[in-house]
Design goal:
Helix content is 67%, strand content 0%. By secondary structure, it is mainly alpha-helical. The chain has two domains: 190 residues, Clc chloride channel, CATH 1.10.3080; 173 residues, Clc chloride channel (Orthogonal Bundle). Helix 2 crosses helix 9. It is globular and about 55 Å long.
């Protein structure tokens, strides 16, 4: 054996030991993140049911926003960075994520939902998973290069358990870090973390929403073209959402220096508009309207209403996430486009549900896999077309500004092998 080869790789026993240690840590992350997601989902169910039973709670949205802003100002510290802080720490590990990130984002999200903010839940689950995973990294004194993998396991476990889509959760953790580049080295631990976290959440009694798509047979070439067109429109909608959310947040920060006043003002505007326009359907997660999008024609402006209320909620500083509101926007936009494009209503609602998120988060592969987990294998090809078109049309900036450019979205020529050295002369 040549000396350079002897030191180019770990001995087999050491490799298996490192792999086993990594999988055990991934399982520990799954136990913590899955339990946290279950607690969060139960709390969200309570908050949503309470708000719907007591519509007057909407009057407290400005004070709830002030409380959320004040809590993050006084207690949050680095936690206010949210998902972007987590992505930054994976790319450039510097400092352990504060443990208080997990309970703080959980309570802030539940309060936001209780009083009617239009926010989601993926951000909360991902931040809880990442913060809890990082405590394990510190407790076991992981090497600098090992810590990012455990943080990715936290993302996978949180995402997979909060939506009941573990395969999509694992791929999301690999895909969300950089546009056009995957971190394949973390695939196995992320799969283990996401699958086990989903099982843990289910054991704690967590439940997930299910939507049915009727069999639709083989799609014609014309229908496939219509899916591509719909995907492009989903991508443009995602681009509008991400750009408007970032722009509004920047305006709030520039014009209102004291952070608690931003969600207080945003809460006043949201409550006033919801009451004056009779637009309560655009508050909270909006799961009932998402279900209706698969069953019956809805007002064509539903996606616009949810878009506006979510941008106002996220931009002014309420906590939670964007994904479930993006599901609402995509499903209702697909519902509105279906008769125009001569596509089955439930089919295009399903594709829209995942494709708008794919464009906004720059994660087309994870969202295609999510469609398969949510709706079955028949949705794989339509979802892949819609998500790919949405991704390409959604612009360079998504909802997570900490994403690295990676390979980007422009087509690039494949690298060519260097020319072979000339053969030695014959002797």
């Amino acid at each position: 054996m040549k000396p350079d080869r002897a030191h180019s790789r770990l001995p087999p026993i050491a490799s298996l030991s490192a792999l086993g240690r990594g999988l055990l840590l991934a399982a520990a992350v799954a136990l913590l993140a899955g339990s946290a997601s279950a607690l969060f989902l139960h709390a969200l169910d309570w908050a949503t049911a309470t708000r719907l039973a007591s519509p007057w709670l909407l009057a407290g949205l400005p004070l709830a926003g002030f409380a959320v802003g004040w809590a993050y100002l006084k207690l949050g510290g680095r936690s206010d960075g949210g998902n972007n802080l987590l992505i930054d720490e994976i790319h450039q590990p510097r400092q352990t994520l504060p443990l208080r990130m997990a309970p703080l984002v959980l309570l802030a999200t539940v309060v936001s939902h209780l009083f009617g903010a239009s926010v989601g839940r993926e951000g909360t689950a991902v931040q809880m998973g990442g913060a809890l995973a990082d405590q394990l990294a510190r407790a076991f004194r992981l090497a600098r290069e090992e810590r990012p993998v455990l943080l990715m396991c936290g993302i996978a476990a949180g995402f997979g358990s909060v939506f009941g889509t573990p395969l999509a959760g694992a791929l999301f953790a690999l895909e969300v870090l950089a546009i056009g580049r995957l971190q394949h080295a973390a695939l196995l631990p992320c799969l283990v973390a996401a699958l086990l976290a989903d099982r843990v959440a289910l054991l704690w009694g967590a439940s997930h929403s299910h939507y049915a798509v009727a069999p639709f047979g083989q799609l014609s070439l014309l229908q496939l073209g219509a899916l591509l067109l719909a995907g492009a429109l989903f991508g443009l909608t995602a681009r509008l959402f991400a750009g408007a959310s970032h722009a509004l947040a920047a305006q709030f920060k520039r014009r209102i220096a004291w952070a608690p006043l931003r969600p207080l003002l945003g809460g006043c505007v949201i409550a006033a508009l919801a009451w004056s326009l009779g637009a309560e359907r655009y508050l909270g997660l909006g799961l009932p309207v998402i279900g209706q999008a698969f069953e019956q024609p809805l007002p064509a402006w539903d996606f616009v209403g949810k878009l506006a209320f979510t941008i106002a909620s996220i931009g002014s500083g309420f906590k939670g996430g964007e994904v479930t509101p993006l599901f609402f926007i995509g499903a209702t936009l697909g519902n509105a486009l279906a008769p125009l494009l001569q596509l089955p209503l439930d089919l295009l609602a399903a594709v829209g549900l995942v494709a708008v998120f794919a464009g906004a988060a720059n994660t087309p592969l994870a969202c295609t896999l999510m469609a398969i987990e949510l709706f079955g294998t028949a949705l794989g090809m339509p979802a892949a077309l819609g998500c790919a078109a949405s991704y390409l049309c959604s612009g360079p900036q998504g909802i997570y500004h900490a994403q690295r450019p990676g390979a980007g979205k422009a087509a690039r020529p494949l690298p060519t092998a260097p020319p072979a050295p000339p053969a030695p002369p014959a002797t």
